[in-house]
Amino acid sequence: MSPQANPPRVLVVNGPNLDLLGRREPEVYGTDTLDVLVDRCRRVAGELGLEVDARQSNHEGVLIDAVHEAMTGHGGVIINPGGYTHTSVALRDALAALPVPVVEIHLSNVHAREAFRSHSYVSPVATAVIAGAGVTGYDLALRFLAERIVRRT
Ligand code: DQA
């Protein structure tokens, strides 16, 4: 796709402990670092006619503030809420308020792990959920949002 002057922007939010990617349980989460993951997202987004804004925090309130950015500035959100997936009503409420599609993503297949990981506060307010595809899941999420955003603009 040829580059656009102002491509639609997608917010990619990574939650707690994802700053440790590459070093944290690599047998579960893979060996790519967060920087590698974000660079990959930017490249794939560019190929799809999108632009990526990336945020990562270990703090619930900071993640909620990041999600609020997408109230106005973004065409869609990809979020890996990390452990907050399974605990945070407040993050879910922030995502539910968004007027744009939300993709919940997990590197690991949360349903094949401990029972507590099978429950997500986020899934009921997400447009789509991807789990277990590793970093490729972010590519898939971007493709999905490109279909939803680019083809409609
Ligand atoms: C995770 C799965 C969560 O259960 C866990 O707390 C994470 C990462 C994943 O990407 O597979 O931090 O969201």
Automatic annotation (TrEMBL):
Output the GO biological process annotations, alphabetical, semicolon-separated.
Answer: amino acid biosynthetic process; aromatic amino acid family biosynthetic process; chorismate biosynthetic process; quinate catabolic process
Q: Which residues bind substrate?
A: N80, H86, D93, L107, S108, R117
Per the Swiss-Prot or TrEMBL record, the active site comprises Y29 (proton acceptor), H106 (proton donor)
Q: Where is this site: Transition state stabilizer?
A: R24
Asked if Lyase is a keyword of the record, the answer is: yes
Kindly tell me the pathway this chain contributes to: Metabolic intermediate biosynthesis; chorismate biosynthesis; chorismate from D-erythrose 4-phosphate and phosphoenolpyruvate: step 3/7
Give UniProt keywords alphabetically: Amino-acid biosynthesis, Aromatic amino acid biosynthesis, Lyase
Q: Which reaction does it catalyse?
A: 3-dehydroquinate = 3-dehydroshikimate + H2O
What are the protein's GO molecular function terms?
3-dehydroquinate dehydratase activity
* InterPro entries per the UniProt record, alphabetical: DHquinase_II, DHquinase_II_CS, DHquinase_II_sf
Pfam families per the UniProt record, alphabetical: DHquinase_II (PF01220)
Q: What is its EC number?
A: 4.2.1.10
Similarity-based family: Belongs to the type-II 3-dehydroquinase family.
Q: What does this protein do?
A: Catalyzes a trans-dehydration via an enolate intermediate.
Q: How does it assemble?
A: Homododecamer.
Q: What is this protein called?
A: 3-dehydroquinate dehydratase
Gene source species: Actinomycetospora cinnamomea
